[in-house]
Amino acid sequence: MARRREQAMSFPVEPAYPPIQAAVQHRVGFSEVDPMRIVWFGRYATFFEQASAALRDCCGLSHEDFFRAGIQPPIVRYEVEYLQPSRLDEQLKIVARLHGTEAARLNTSYQVFGPDGALRVAARTVQVFTELHTGTMCFVPPKIWLDCLERWRKGEFACLQA
Known about the structure:
single chain, Thiol Ester Dehydrase, Chain A, two-stranded antiparallel sheet
């Protein structure tokens, strides 16, 4: 069952861009759980952002890099499957994978693993590129993304490959 869900929350692999990934550790805090000491479902978005930021920082795609390029990448699709609950004080591993595409978008998948290594949550997001000041969608990939793809093709991100 977990394999089916893992595949459903992924993206097609383009041979020139094998997925790259980064992982972060996160201890579940008191403010992140509900009265039953289970992580409130809305908190997972912040966990995903932590892992995504770590990954994008390695690729020249940090929020600051986007701002300097005059681009913003709002999320237009967010899908999550909750497989098992996470609880107060558990140490979670959150993995973000960036899936390369020559389209003007960022495809990212996420997995949250419990301390026992079991998959707890699988998710994915799609972000499109828009102009920072006008919000106009970019139908052609912006230079910051094209530069990243060029580095990817050259193998600069091999140490991040899944």
